[in-house]
């Protein structure tokens, strides 16, 4: 397998528009159901965390309830990720929404020990990479070239906006009707997504189905073999870490915002404003980079945009005030658009078989490292302070940019070939 850097996009390539991407009806259906699903996920995660804290008064258990839906996903991708390529996608995606709805309904209507509730959330997280990988594989099949990149951009923007909506709706629903009613609303949203996918998504040809999970461990063995092959592929491995590491460092800094605001005695509620600055910056960055820049320019801006993620965080070493902190976080959020310049390279580097598992591994690794980032940066904050820890997260992002630059540098064209 070659490890040479993929060529950058043709500078003369035409720029696709978001409107053109949304004219694809199958993508539009997946996009709309995924947006509603992210809102329901955010509602479930935050509400269950609040329910655990109300019942136990334990900040640790509340944090475990918040992270239980993210951390197990990497293990699920390693053990069950091959199902994204083996099972019929419509049934798999609809089944995923149905399973998430059933889990939220159990939490809403059945009073169970906290440990059992955490196990329910963790079980859903284990199989989530298979559902998300199947959906991403369909998007890659139905959208070509720049349309695929903009499709990913739309999904990113929708996810950021949906998380904000889920946080706002969750807080209002808990205040108005209590956490169990809010969980029931999230369950209903997931069940609606399952019904729409089952009834409206075209039926695709069934692919070979792995049914012998118990008899010989076929699905698990294939998943481990597929994940190992992807991680041994140098180009794929580099592109995975190029997408994982910057967001993990910034997530670590994001996890310090509440402590930073509290330690500097900002006005009550300031932490919520500061936490909203990152997703707002992400929305703006994806919109600007995806809408107005040509494919070749996006790909050349990957490293500068990663630098933009990390450089503002260095400013927290000087303990900025509330307004400057908001500006720094907004700038860091803009840099998340670097991912748009890596999508074509990542898709081109993947083998023909196993694309669904690769997309599942990309998403699950991202979620897991973003869950571990705050833990690592929080451990640094104990001796050094929150501002210094956030600055170190920025430094880690800059070092990642330097590493990516070392292997993404365009190579000169040989004279003979010219």
Please describe what this structure looks like.
This protein is an all-alpha fold. The protein folds into 2 domains: 16-201, MFS general substrate transporter like domains (Growth Hormone, Chain: A, Up-down Bundle), CATH 1.20.1250; 231-409, MFS general substrate transporter like domains (Growth Hormone, Chain: A), CATH 1.20.1250.20. 77% of the residues lie in helices and 0% in strands. It has 19 helices and no strands. Helix 15 (302-314) runs antiparallel to helix 16 (322-334). The chain is globular. The relative contact order is 0.15.
**How many strands appear in the DSSP assignment?**
0
Write the H/E string, N to C: HHHHHHHHHHHHHHHHHHH
Derived from helix and strand composition plus strand pairing, the structural class reads mainly alpha
How many domains would you count in the coordinates? 2
Superfamily at the CATH H level of the largest domain?
MFS general substrate transporter like domains
Please state roughly what percent of the residues sit in beta strands, choosing from under 5%, 5-15%, 15-25%, 25-35%, 35-45% or over 45%: under 5%
Broad shape: globular
Give the fraction of residues assigned to helices.
over 70%
Mean pLDDT: 85
* CATH domain class name of the largest domain: Mainly Alpha
Low-confidence stretches: 1-12, 208-216, 411-418
What is the rounded distance between the termini?
Answer: 25 Å
Radius of gyration: 21 Å
Supply the CATH architecture of the largest domain. Up-down Bundle
Number of helices: 19
